[in-house]
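Kindly draft a polypeptide, keeping tokens residue-aligned:

***
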Amino acid sequence: MAYVEGVRRPPRSGLRKVLYEMRREWSAYLYISPGLLMFIVFTAFALVFSLYISFHEWSLIDPAKPFVGLDNYEFLKDDSRFRTALFNTAYFTLLSVPLGIIVGLLLALLLNKEMRARSMFRTLFFIPSVTPFVIAAIIWKWVYNADFGLLNYYLQKLHIIDEPLLWLADPDLAMPAIVLMSVWAGAGGTMLLYLAGLQSIPEELYEAAKVDGAGPWQRLRYVTFPMLAPTTLFLIVVGILGSFQVFVQIFVMTSGGPLDRTTTIAYYIYQTAFKFYEMGYATAISWVLFAILFVFTVIQFRMSRRWAEF
């Protein structure tokens, strides 16, 4: 359509505006093209292709890959190992997430006070969080060793136990042992986030609480905890997302453990895909895991919206 000279061209909107801006700033896309290409190939395409695979009987050793529809998802209902892995993952989450938040908060409250060598203690507590998980898992595997492990040695020296415990081989102790290691590895990061939250609380709130006669516990309960609510919500959401995907500790320390007592969903996906070569069924489990995490996240945000915006 032709426009009369002097008449203002109507503003672009919608898709036309986006395409116009892309053409005008085309040089910017040259800079982001390597990262964008990697995202498209290794994330977007992989995500779509995994959904495609989940509807097939896709084996790495069998050239025939027939379409099976929802059979992979329906088989989950009768898979006892999947139910065991789901239970173990929930058990790990219920132990590790609250315990990690409590330990991190206590460390933050302690190291937020004026004390000598405070920076050194903060660094020492934070080091495990930046230690690669594989290295941390190997170290703790030595700590738990029944023959020469430090944990059994000191527990016997303190007369808490009479004989060495098989921490990673005992069905009742394996998962708590992994939880303890995970809390140790993640408490430093939780502490750092809580320290940032504590230092952002206005001092005037504590002074006003003191004027009203509030003691240390009342100030902690009615000032500190409410002001840390957004940080706590973030840690709960991230903690649940991370704990439902726990893999490295299981792989390095127990390989699923005795009687599958430490087999989590992520480890079961690995076994199904790379030990039994059933890629179709493994990707179906992965999508079920995604659905579980999505539902949990939505529920947490809906339930926590009020107190998180305090």
